[in-house]
Amino acid sequence: MGITAHFFYKFLKLNTMKKLLSIAAVTVALVSLSSCKKDYTCTCTFVEVGEPNYETNLTIPNVSKKDAKTACDNFTTTYSVAGGTCELK
Protein backbone atom coordinates (compact mmCIF):
# COMPACT_ATOMS: atom_id res chain seq x y z
CA MET A 1 0.00 0.00 0.00
CA GLY A 2 1.46 3.37 -0.99
CA ILE A 3 1.79 6.32 1.38
CA THR A 4 -1.17 8.15 -0.19
CA ALA A 5 -3.40 5.09 0.05
CA HIS A 6 -2.30 4.52 3.64
CA PHE A 7 -3.24 8.11 4.67
CA PHE A 8 -6.54 7.86 2.77
CA TYR A 9 -7.36 4.60 4.60
CA LYS A 10 -6.56 6.18 8.01
CA PHE A 11 -8.63 9.26 7.11
CA LEU A 12 -11.68 7.10 6.22
CA LYS A 13 -11.25 5.00 9.33
CA LEU A 14 -11.01 8.12 11.55
CA ASN A 15 -14.09 9.71 9.93
CA THR A 16 -16.07 6.49 10.33
CA MET A 17 -15.18 6.32 14.04
CA LYS A 18 -16.16 9.96 14.56
CA LYS A 19 -19.51 9.37 12.86
CA LEU A 20 -20.19 6.25 14.92
CA LEU A 21 -19.31 8.02 18.16
CA SER A 22 -21.54 10.96 17.24
CA ILE A 23 -24.46 8.67 16.43
CA ALA A 24 -23.92 6.73 19.66
CA ALA A 25 -23.81 9.94 21.72
CA VAL A 26 -27.03 11.25 20.17
CA THR A 27 -28.76 7.92 20.68
CA VAL A 28 -27.78 7.73 24.35
CA ALA A 29 -28.92 11.32 24.91
CA LEU A 30 -32.32 10.71 23.28
CA VAL A 31 -32.95 7.48 25.18
CA SER A 32 -31.96 8.96 28.52
CA LEU A 33 -34.14 12.04 28.06
CA SER A 34 -37.22 10.42 26.59
CA SER A 35 -37.74 7.20 28.51
CA CYS A 36 -37.51 8.35 32.11
CA LYS A 37 -40.85 10.01 32.67
CA LYS A 38 -44.39 8.92 31.93
CA ASP A 39 -47.86 8.86 33.46
CA TYR A 40 -48.59 6.38 36.25
CA THR A 41 -51.82 5.32 37.94
CA CYS A 42 -52.20 4.88 41.67
CA THR A 43 -55.23 2.71 42.44
CA CYS A 44 -56.71 3.19 45.90
CA THR A 45 -59.24 0.73 47.34
CA PHE A 46 -61.48 1.41 50.31
CA VAL A 47 -62.97 -1.49 52.26
CA GLU A 48 -65.94 -0.99 54.56
CA VAL A 49 -67.63 -3.82 56.42
CA GLY A 50 -71.03 -4.57 54.90
CA GLU A 51 -70.41 -2.31 51.89
CA PRO A 52 -68.97 -3.04 48.45
CA ASN A 53 -65.34 -2.05 47.95
CA TYR A 54 -64.84 1.39 46.46
CA GLU A 55 -61.92 1.88 44.09
CA THR A 56 -60.51 5.12 42.68
CA ASN A 57 -57.69 5.72 40.22
CA LEU A 58 -55.39 8.69 40.67
CA THR A 59 -53.23 9.71 37.70
CA ILE A 60 -49.69 10.89 38.44
CA PRO A 61 -48.56 12.61 35.22
CA ASN A 62 -45.07 12.93 33.71
CA VAL A 63 -42.89 11.54 36.53
CA SER A 64 -40.25 8.87 37.01
CA LYS A 65 -41.31 5.54 38.50
CA LYS A 66 -39.52 6.37 41.76
CA ASP A 67 -41.40 9.68 42.12
CA ALA A 68 -44.69 7.98 41.22
CA LYS A 69 -44.11 5.37 43.93
CA THR A 70 -43.39 8.10 46.48
CA ALA A 71 -46.60 9.92 45.51
CA CYS A 72 -48.64 6.71 45.69
CA ASP A 73 -47.13 5.92 49.11
CA ASN A 74 -48.21 9.39 50.25
CA PHE A 75 -51.75 8.65 49.01
CA THR A 76 -51.65 5.39 50.98
CA THR A 77 -50.71 7.28 54.13
CA THR A 78 -53.55 9.74 53.59
CA TYR A 79 -56.22 7.20 52.64
CA SER A 80 -55.26 4.61 55.26
CA VAL A 81 -57.03 6.81 57.82
CA ALA A 82 -60.29 6.06 56.00
CA GLY A 83 -59.45 2.34 55.66
CA GLY A 84 -57.95 2.54 52.19
CA THR A 85 -54.86 1.12 50.55
CA CYS A 86 -53.14 2.28 47.38
CA GLU A 87 -51.03 0.49 44.78
CA LEU A 88 -48.98 1.85 41.89
CA LYS A 89 -49.94 0.36 38.53
What does this protein structure show overall?
With 89 residues, this protein is α+β, with helices and mostly antiparallel strands. It has two domains: 1-35; 38-88, no CATH class. Helices cover 53% and strands 27% of the residues. The chain contains two helices and three strands. Strands 2-1-3 form a three-stranded antiparallel beta sheet, covered by helices on one side. It is rod-shaped. The N and C termini lie far apart (63 Å). Residues 20-26 have low confidence and may be disordered.
Sketch the topology as an H/E string, one letter per element: HEEHE
Oligomer: single chain
Category from helices, strands and their pairing: alpha+beta
Shape: rod-shaped
Count of discrete alpha- or pi-helical segments spanning 4 or more residues = 2
State the major sheet: 3 strands, antiparallel
Radius of gyration: 27 Å
SSE blueprint:
Blueprint: H1 3-34, E1 38-46, E2 54-63, H2 65-79, E3 84-88
Antiparallel strand pairs: 1-2, 1-3
Summarize it.
The chain has about 90 residues and is α+β, with helices and mostly antiparallel strands. The protein is built from 2 helices and 3 strands, in the order H-E-E-H-E. The protein has a 3-stranded antiparallel β-sheet, with helices on one face.
Question: Features of this protein?
Answer:
three-stranded antiparallel beta sheet, 53% helix, alpha+beta, 89 residues
